[in-house]
Amino acid sequence: MKKRLTILLLILLTGCLCSCSLSDILPTVQFPQRTTETVTPYKEVKPDNLTYSEGYEPVTSTYSYDALPKEGEKLLYNKILDNCYDISPDPTEGRYPMPRIELNGYSLSEAEVRTTSKALTDDHPEIFWLTGTIGFYTDESMTVIQTYSNFSPEEVGTRVSAMRSAANAFYTSVPDGLSAFEREVMVHDFLIDHVEYDKNVDTINLDNNNPDTYTAYGALVNKVSVCEGYVRAFQMLLNGLGVECVGVIGESQNQMHIWNAVKLDGSWYYVDPTWDDQEQTYARHLYCNVNKDYLLEDHTISPLFTSLDADEINGITGEYSASVMNIYIPECTDDSMGYYKQKTPHLRDYDAADVKSGMLTAAQQQEEYFVFYVEEGLDFQTVITDLFVDYPQHFFTYINAVNNSLSDYSVDESNIAYFTHERSRIVAVELHYY
User: Fold this and answer.
1) pTM value?
2) Are 126 and 216 in contact (CB under 8 A)?
3) For 124-275, where are the alpha helices, taking DSSP H only?
4) Is the pLDDT of residue 3 over 60?
């Protein structure tokens, strides 16, 4: 009896901030019967070596792989990973087949195949050409999988080379000897400076969208992406710099969204590079290394796959599915590596020696904004009132101290605007000079 593959439409994350949307998992359809593999030889597109910085030991994400509970799922994961670099030049219904995978002795369910595919995508942001479609057959003694590429082997090779070149160009700017935090900030700021959020993404008809906008390739080469592109590029570049990083999926502003978690000095922190891509420079790190309590004020984390049943993972019932579940969620309770805690002057008391020194440095460089951090022991709103509103308006005494150290120009104390963000405990002051 001929075996029949069922096509699973494994639609993964395909949307983002302010236009984050996921298509529903579509009903399965029958794959046409066929008795032989593609006759044209597969072409290998795997590069000679992966992209990484020579100054640091690269790491590979395995957190989602490690979370897979069954030996058969891990075996399937590895076989898909090995096969994805071998692509047929002859398309089948617009898709380019990869070698068919047969797992003898393992009977995986549809939900387990979907979970395994999601795990591989989560761990390997550098693999951007896999389609959301997998041919699937199982019985009591085996599982058969057929995977596909969106592009021909020639185009995948060209795109891989272009992405590696873009990554390597960035890596040449990263000096040796940086801490993990410093490397992370360099990647964070590089993406914000070089990637434009795709405001034209269609959240209703996802087929209208360029698939590149959801990938590390789109972010690094085309320099246009939605949240998934930011996240995959962030993860890929940090892994190349030896910093562990994963993606976390959930919701924000009632839209599907994805962001990162990064491991620094043994602790995990949430990072949302998409939300940090702001025009105002002082607001470009509000979600750089925050903890869970901070994040959950305006983000919702999707559940782990272990809390969903098979019908939910397959998209038949429930709110979640393979496309919007997490395989691994790190515990992010620390905020000691928060960007503003690490990088801005601290206001500890109204003497404010650190703030005055920091503002002098900003004024000497004639920076537009000066940002400082209000330490937790102080009541934030009281500090703002005492600095800017009620006598003696301490901040203006700080300006006088700075101006006494400047010679060719001064900070205009009559033209001061300030912005506060209590959750981050920061104050940003807009500086003008005369």
Assistant:
1) 0.90
2) yes
3) 153-171, 180-194, 216-217, 227-240
4) no
